[in-house]
């Protein structure tokens, strides 16, 4: 079934890109497909499309070329390679980097140096922003997205293991326009599991993410199963990092974890009223 869905997704992307190439009207989805199919993307990143479904994910979040898009903690720049070129002509792209700012954002800076045309407009800001650090202007963003990061805030990454997830959601709320969208993707912990596991495993309950978002003022819009993986039982010896692409156990049972693939993930959409 997974293989069939992957083939369908690939064919859909190919048709969308072909429509752009032949001068057909450029829809939101075809613009996303064009960005995802760009030859400028790193081949190793393209290999992860089968697990991360970027066209469907960004389409679900409603990302458009003319948007002001903020990506929270872009990490190695996986989504930067898609979002920056997508917004280059008509929109704006902010890469909001981690608490080690201004030393963070190295991947984004490397992309800017590699191709100033595609990535030069990307703006680096701090997140969560502290006094005196550059930040996304309040009420300026159409869409804020973050991929596999809420668990870091819950675990207190670089904050002495102190949970600052609510603060993160409050800052994301502030940067959005009224009616703007927050898109969240993260590793999904079963609702029946102990909430204590959120502090160590890298997995989060959907109910926890919803609670945090709603506490910050967001309204829940909907959920998609596009990034679901029923093979992931979320109970691995080294948490989510046991699975690809991290393989924290290195060569121990590597084939087993490769067959499982990347984690089971929630994909949630919220709105700033």
Quick tags:
disordered N terminus, 273 residues, alpha/beta, seven-stranded mixed sheet
Strand content: 15-25%
* Widest β-sheet, arrangement of strands: 3-2-1-4-5-7-6
- Mean pLDDT over the residues: 91
Characterize the overall form.
globular
Radius of gyration: 18 Å
Terminus-to-terminus distance: 38 Å
| Low-confidence sequence ranges | 1-24
How does this model look, in words?
This protein has a seven-stranded mixed sheet. 41% of the residues are buried. It has 273 residues and is of the alpha/beta class. Strand 1, helix 6 (80-87) and strand 2 form a beta-alpha-beta unit. It is globular and about 45 Å long. The chain is 37% helix and 17% strand.
Outline the fold blueprint.
Layout lengths: L1 H20 L6 H9 L6 H4 L2 H4 L1 H8 L6 E5 L7 H8 L4 E6 L8 H9 L1 H4 L3 E4 L14 E7 L2 H6 L9 H11 E12 L18 H10 L3 E6 L29 H7 L4 E7 L2
Parallel strand pairs: 1-2, 1-4, 2-3, 4-5
Antiparallel strand pairs: 5-7, 6-7
Helix pairs in contact: 1-2, 2-5, 2-6
Can I get a quick summary?
The chain has 273 residues and is an alpha/beta fold. 37% of the residues lie in helices and 17% in strands. Helix 1 (2-21) packs across helix 2 (28-36) and helix 2 packs across helix 6 (80-87).
